[in-house]
Structures are given as structure tokens and as C-alpha cells.
Design brief:
The chain contains 9 helices and no strands. The protein is mainly alpha-helical.
């Protein structure tokens, strides 16, 4: 559900771009890709925090059906994929060097915290919660940088 739900979850840049410009140019797709790749690790961190609630409700979130270790490894892979995708706004000229620096710094920080989360011997809801909030801060920072440094 997280992967499929990532499509409508990442649609706001497409919708906003189309509403303003009347088309779906490359920058809209670049921002869509950024949001799409960002979402799995973000939501799985929350799913680890709320795993018991998801299980009681019968919702098949990854930590419930595959366990915390599989979830943490997938979070790491999606976060790794986020690093090059986060560079696309600079590559395609959507944003400039301020954005690029922000994406690199924030991406490295977010990735390193995910590595620490994966390496932890036990899963802690507090660690997962902190990673969830870091993911929100990450997305906020890179989108502010796109806004400030838009071309």
C-alpha cells in the first residue's frame, strides 16, 4: 500500500504545476519523483511506531507482515535511492546551487540517520519516531530550497 499510495501522495506537484501552467513540464515530474521516492521510508518509520495499531486494525503495513528488520532494510534502500533523485531539480535546472547544497547536506544527514536506525540492534519506537520527524524536516528543507532557489 505504501508504494502504490506513493503515486497520489506525490501528485501535488503535478496538480499544482498543471493548475498554474496548464501543462506537465519536466520540473513537475522531477518534483513528483522526489516526493514519490521520499515517501516509503517516511511512512515505514511511522508504521514501525504504530505497528501494533496497524496489526490490531488488520492493515497489512510492511512492519506487520514482514517485520521490523525487513522494513528497516527497505527504508535504507529507498533512502539511498532518494540521494540521486534529490539531485534532479539541480540537474534539470529547476533549482540552483543553494538547492543542490541543501539536498546534499539534508540527504546525507537523513541517510546517515537511517543507516544508524538499521544498524541498531533493537528497533525502538523512539528512534523510528525521530527518523519520521527528520524525514518531514528533510522534505520541508528541500522544498523551501526549491522555492528560494527556483530558476
Amino acid at each position: 500500500c505504501t508504494s502504490i499510495g506513493g503515486i497520489p501522495g506525490a501528485a501535488p506537484p503535478l496538480i499544482g504545476w498543471a493548475a498554474v501552467s496548464g501543462d506537465l513540464a519536466t520540473p513537475a515530474w522531477v518534483l513528483f519523483a522526489l516526493m514519490f521516492v521520499w515517501q516509503p521510508a517516511h511512512f515505514w518509520a511511522l508504521a514501525i511506531v504504530r505497528k501494533e495499531e496497524y496489526a490490531r486494525a488488520g492493515l497489512p503495513m510492511l512492519p506487520v507482515v514482514r517485520g521490523d528488520d525487513v522494513t528497516r532494510k527497505r527504508m535504507l534502500w529507498w533512502n539511498l535511492a532518494l540521494l540521486p533523485v534529490s539531485l534532479l531539480p539541480a540537474v534539470f535546472g529547476v533549482a540552483g546551487t543553494l538547492y543542490l547544497a541543501t539536498a546534499i547536506v539534508m540527504g546525507a544527514w537523513y541517510f546517515w540517520r537511517t543507516v544508524q536506525f538499521v544498524r541498531a540492534p533493537e528497533v525502538s519506537a523512539d528512534q523510528a519516531r525521530r527518523l519520521f520527524f527528520l524525514s518531514i524536516f528533510y522534505l520541508f528543507a528541500v522544498f523551501v530550497a526549491v522555492f528560494v532557489d527556483a530558476r
